[in-house]
Design a protein that fits this description.
Layout (H helix, E strand, L loop, with lengths): L4 H12 L31 E8 L9 E6 L12 H4 L6 E2 L2 H13 L5 E4 L5 H13 L6 E5 L5 H6 L6 E4 L6 H8 L4 H15 L1 E7 L8 H11 L4 E5 L20 H14 L3 E4 L2 E2 L1
Parallel strand pairs: 2-4, 4-5, 5-6, 6-7, 7-8, 8-9
Antiparallel strand pairs: 1-2, 1-3, 9-10
Length: 283
Amino acid sequence: MRLSGRELRLRAAEARRHYARCDLCAHLCGVDRRHGPAGVCQEDDGLSLAGAGVHYGEEPQLVPSGLILIAGCNLSCQSCETWSFSLERRGTVRTSAEQLAALLLDLEKSGAANANFVTPTHVLPVLLEALAVAAEHGWSLPVVWNCGGYESIEALRLLEGVVDVYLPDAKYGDDAVAYELSGCKRYTAALDRSLREMHRQAEVIVRHLVLPGAVASPGKLMPLIASVSPAICINVLSQYRPVYRAARFPVIARGVTAQEVSAAVEAARSAGLRNILVDGRPA
């Protein structure tokens, strides 16, 4: 993070103005979130957390990571692994910017190497406010933006100088599937724009969760990622299982095979990507 506490406060004030006609993700809802839940994400202008702690299960270059689990999401994935707090907001706690700043300071004292904000884009303004308070108390960890890949350029530009590592999902290479399974229109174009802006600003590590039957179209997705930069790190994840509402969709109602994971890795190689991980380990 390269901005001072004062600069972060100015950036947070600029970001908060976006709540009046929200354009903080690629849905570009244009709704007023200042007076109650609105838009696709059905969020207001506050913040709720599902948990936090020092985590060792992230990509090797990010551990030990100070994981901060944020309630809500701008996506509606039918197989969401964290659906209880991401989509249904169960067991979450309303948290002020000052409380989050105190949590950030505690994570630093506990040995975290970074602050890893999970599904953060829909609450970007209050996160910037918390970072400002923490910075004014000497906090100085790198910031990891662990997001769904469906961001807006407006939001990403507010993060320039704030985020050290972008950790986006790259979910689909097919727009029709993205809409059916995650409620995202024009997904691949939004992902392409997001990755290019992220890559312009900071380090990018892309995650791709392999889905059964090649439904995520890795043969289309990997060239999209490689067109941004063949040096981008891609972490191919094999742990998909049919949770939440996945059983309603026959195409994703089972787990993935080793052959399907290998096919996604081969698609990445064929696209020219040079830095490929599988579940965090070199392919």
